[in-house]
């Protein structure tokens, strides 16, 4: 599958970038040249990330294998996917594991035999005792040639839902979500909760109802689930499929059986809604970068032209530049409006997130105490423990999504404060990672797949949006457990 007719107009954008780079080089603006080259590399990166999520034993891995017609995902009766697995295109099959940062502070990629992907790689001998963050697989599938990259995630159900927060943490940077739920029954409460939260973070997605070959009543289940989504105001389509029929169809080259499996409907969704990039954040970011560079070059060239045409213009330009210089210096002062908005907002955000999570944990504790008081805990301890772990996972997930939206609102407030302060030299009414301090060199394709706190380099907005997944929760869980761990979010900027 290829991207339909270059929907992003990459060729036009690249031509525009190259033209702007040439002008920047003539004007000896090396800083703009570097930024534009990074933007060029970003827009020409064809990777489109699709997260596959779902509860345990819903057929996620089998769905991915059938979709690609390749055994790229581990399948079994137990928890098959135990690590985040990234599957992208490669002319030859390949596999590697990404290890946690070592003494030098950087992650390490280690090649492994392709046959090893069917085993539990959490304790792979190639890791030499280091934690395995994810598995990356290269597969020669035509479906992946257009830039699709599938991210198979561990099941979000199970004992204590240990992977719930990590899966939610992947969604802010995903292009689409495939939520897998088999056709044995209508959505469970945890599934509906996850769908609602996931849709708020990643609005492009579909529900894949698997195992239709096993359950004759799958149509009633699909209709019921569609009604649930409508009531919850989650506009996600439901695609009923059979991975088993798809596998048989591919083996026997039976087109009619392939149609009955309904896998072409998934391919159609990916082509029309995902590969078409109806929502393309990277493209918008690159266009803003070009616009910013062009503005700076236009000011420089325009000033020189004005002086040449009217020598008296020099004094007026000098005065205007001095004024803009003062405005820029004022904007960097701690007393500047945007600094006050950021500091106050960050303090409120940190306090509110902390208070919200503590309140949720208090409710969990009170509920657990009621359970213990109402029965003999020695007979029901396993059940009580599972309920507490599930409740904690739900509380952390709710807190994550709530904080994500609060951080976005704060970023918008900070951006608006520039206009409110009358800083006409700061031309950034629209929020962008570059304008707020991030750099294209830091927007690496898979750098955020660990769903862990980001480093110091991701400043302000990108830090608030992308690095939340774990920091607040770890600090809160530690304090609830009586551990005096330092929580980085409790320290405001400035």
TrEMBL record:
> Per UniProt, what is one Pfam family of this protein?
Dynamin_N
SUPFAM superfamilies according to UniProt? P-loop containing nucleoside triphosphate hydrolases
Q: Which PANTHER family match?
A: SARCALUMENIN (PTHR43681:SF1), TRANSMEMBRANE GTPASE FZO (PTHR43681)
Q: What is the protein name for this chain?
A: Isoniazid-inducible protein iniA
Entry-linked InterPro entries: Dynamin_N (IPR045063), P-loop_NTPase (IPR027417), TRAFAC_Dynamin-like_GTPase (IPR051943)
Signal sequence, renumbered to the chain: none
Domain Dynamin N-terminal, by residue range, is 50-196
């Amino acid at each position: 599958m290829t991207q339909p007719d270059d929907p992003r107009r990459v060729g036009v954008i690249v031509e525009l970038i190259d033209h702007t780079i040439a002008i920047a080089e003539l004007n000896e603006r090396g800083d703009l040249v570097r930024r534009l080259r990074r933007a060029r590399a970003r827009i020409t990166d064809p990777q489109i990330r699709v997260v596959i999520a779902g509860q345990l034993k819903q057929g996620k891995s089998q769905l991915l294998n059938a979709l690609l017609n390749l055994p790229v995902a581990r399948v079994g009766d137990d928890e098959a996917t135990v690590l985040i697995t990234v599957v992208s295109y490669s002319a030859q099959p390949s596999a590697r594991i990404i290890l946690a940062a070592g003494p030098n502070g950087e992650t390490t990629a280690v090649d492994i035999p392709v046959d090893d992907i069917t085993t539990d790689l959490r304790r792979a001998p190639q890791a030499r005792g280091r934690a395995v963050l994810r598995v990356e697989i290269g597969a020669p599938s035509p479906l992946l040639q257009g830039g699709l990259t599938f991210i198979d995630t561990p099941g979000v159900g199970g004992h204590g839902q240990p992977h719930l927060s990590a899966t939610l943490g992947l969604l802010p940077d995903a292009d689409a979500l495939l939520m897998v739920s088999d056709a044995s029954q209508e959505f469970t409460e945890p599934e509906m909760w996850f769908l609602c939260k996931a849709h708020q973070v990643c609005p492009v997605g579909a529900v894949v109802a698997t195992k239709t070959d096993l359950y004759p009543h799958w149509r009633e289940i699909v209709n019921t689930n569609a009604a649930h989504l409508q009531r919850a105001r989650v506009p996600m389509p439901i695609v009923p499929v059979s991975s088993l029929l798809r596998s048989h169809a591919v083996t026997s080259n039976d087109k009619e059986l392939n149609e009955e499996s309904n896998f072409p409907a998934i391919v159609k969704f990916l082509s029309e809604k995902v590969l078409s990039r109806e929502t393309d954040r990277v493209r918008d970011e690159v266009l803003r970068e070009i616009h910013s560079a062009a503005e700076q070059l236009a000011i420089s060239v325009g000033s020189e032209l004005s002086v040449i045409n009217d020598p008296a213009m020099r004094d007026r330009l000098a005065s205007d530049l001095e004024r803009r210089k003062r405005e820029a210096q004022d904007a960097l002062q701690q007393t500047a409006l945007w600094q006050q908005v950021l500091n106050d907002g960050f303090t409120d955000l940190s306090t509110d997130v902390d208070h919200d999570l503590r309140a949720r944990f208090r409710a969990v504790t009170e509920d657990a105490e009621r359970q213990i008081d109402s029965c003999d805990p020695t007979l029901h301890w396993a059940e009580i423990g599972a309920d507490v772990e599930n409740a904690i996972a739900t509380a952390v997930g709710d807190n994550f999504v709530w904080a994500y939206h609060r951080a976005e609102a704060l970023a918008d407030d900070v951006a608006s404060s520039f206009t409110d302060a009358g800083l006409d030299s700061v031309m950034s009414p629209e929020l962008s990672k570059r304008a707020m301090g991030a750099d294209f060199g830091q927007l690496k394709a898979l750098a955020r797949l660990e769903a862990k706190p980001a480093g110091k380099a991701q400043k302000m907005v990108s830090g608030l949006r992308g690095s939340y997944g774990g920091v607040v929760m770890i600090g809160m869980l530690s304090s609830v457990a009586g551990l005096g761990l330092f929580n980085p979010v409790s320290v405001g900027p400035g």
